Amino acid sequence: MLKKSLFSIFQFILFLSLGIFLIWLSTRSFSGAEILRVKNLVFTADWKLIIPCMGILVLSHYIRAIRWKMMFLPLGYAPKTRNVFLAVIAGFFFNLLFPRLGEVMKCTLLSRDEKIPIDRLIGTMVAERVIDVICLLLVIVLTIITQMELVGGYAQEIWNAITEKLSLSTSKLILALFLIIFALSLAFIFFRKSSSSRLIKKIRDLLTGVMQGLLSVANIKRKNIFIFHTVLIWSLYLLSIRVGFLAMQDLVHLGWVPSLTILTFGSFAMIATQGGIGAYQLIVQKTLLLYGVNEVTSLAFGWLLWSVQTVMMFILGPVSLIILFFSNRKKRKENSGIVF
After folding, report:
1. Gap between the Cα atoms of 252 and 54, Å rounded
2. Is 5 inside a domain boundary?
């Protein structure tokens, strides 16, 4: 437990340090006047449009909650949409604090308040992430196809940076796959020979539950609605960036194509550092340079988008936790007999 906590703290410090380095990298050539200009552009943005931008993002999270709820129905569970939505918001909030903590917390909160087995929740969460990765790949392909000459080289540069950061050489991938297959083979043999063990039975039941959650997508009855919600989520992400352009006077001329490019490369940035800090601003800056926007304005827009998402989560995250605690207190009391 202590090792796990220390590792989480190490991860947090590592990603945060990388983010701070990237902030320095994006401003190292700026004069004091240019840095002041970045701040002024952010704080003088049209907040009448920033607020709708926040609303669009909140709506995308609500649609995500509805989509996640659809995955529970084939498993025989029908949680309240409100609880699912609040758990999703809380998950995004915790992800800002520690890497991947949000995935654990949203499953934990929903399991506590809706009495859904945690293994099913983990399975559906993994399925969700697989779907999001597929969507991101489609967005990348669409971006490169529509703007091959403009972003092809930049996309290659981003990809090289990511593969270098993760050190994923072909030989290491082959070795990793071999080790995974070998470990699964050993586990299969062990489970067969130790099927009477109580611990093994619990592990097997846990893996079965996770697998059921993972495969819940295949049993969704209204798949067309599920696909519609998935497309809508990513469309709202795109719309939030397009509205963001309108909030900054120097960027009102930019349309859907630059918005798509920022959505693509910005998605990588959000997983590169803790909460995307530093990486998101730098990638948005480099992306807008492709469209003839100057460095100062490009960086200011990166800070504006990142600030909108981050500040919103630091407000809504704690609020969602408070609402979850008090709105479900009576149900928890009835189920456990303990007064909270």
Report:
1. 18
2. no
Whether 11 maps to a domain, the answer reads no
Does 196 map to a domain?
yes
∠ CA 259-262-265, nearest 5°, is 150
The pLDDT of 49-53, averaged and rounded, is: 91
Contact 317, 282 (CB under 8 A): no
Contact 99, 11 (CB under 8 A): yes
Domains contained in the chain, number:
1
Full residue range of the structural domain in which residue 191 is found: 47-250+312-333
The 3-state DSSP class for residue 224 equals helix
**In angstroms, rounded to a whole number, what is the distance separating the alpha carbons of residues 306 and 121?**
29
Residue 178: is its pLDDT beyond 80? no
Nearby residues of 301 by Cβ (< 8 Å), 6 or more positions away: 41, 244, 245, 248, 251, 284, 285, 288, 293
Decide if 121 is inside a domain.
yes
- In angstroms, the Cα distances linking 154 to 137, 148, 164, 197 are 16, 10, 15, 54
Contacts of 111 (CB under 8 A, 6+ apart): 117, 118, 121
* CA neighbor of 38 nearest in space, from 27, 28, 29: 27
241 against 192, higher pLDDT: 241
Residue 199 makes CB contacts below 8 A (sequence gap 6+) with none
Contact indicator for 191, 204 with CB cutoff of 8 Å: yes
Residue closest to 85 by CA, chosen among 112, 108, 67, 101: 67
Q: How many angstroms separate the CA atoms of 299 and 205, rounded?
A: 50
Distance CA 41, CA 35 (A): 10
Residue 277 is given by DSSP the state T
Q: Which secondary structure element, helix H or strand E, spans residue 10, and what is its range?
A: helix 2-27
- Write down the mean pLDDT value for the chain: 78
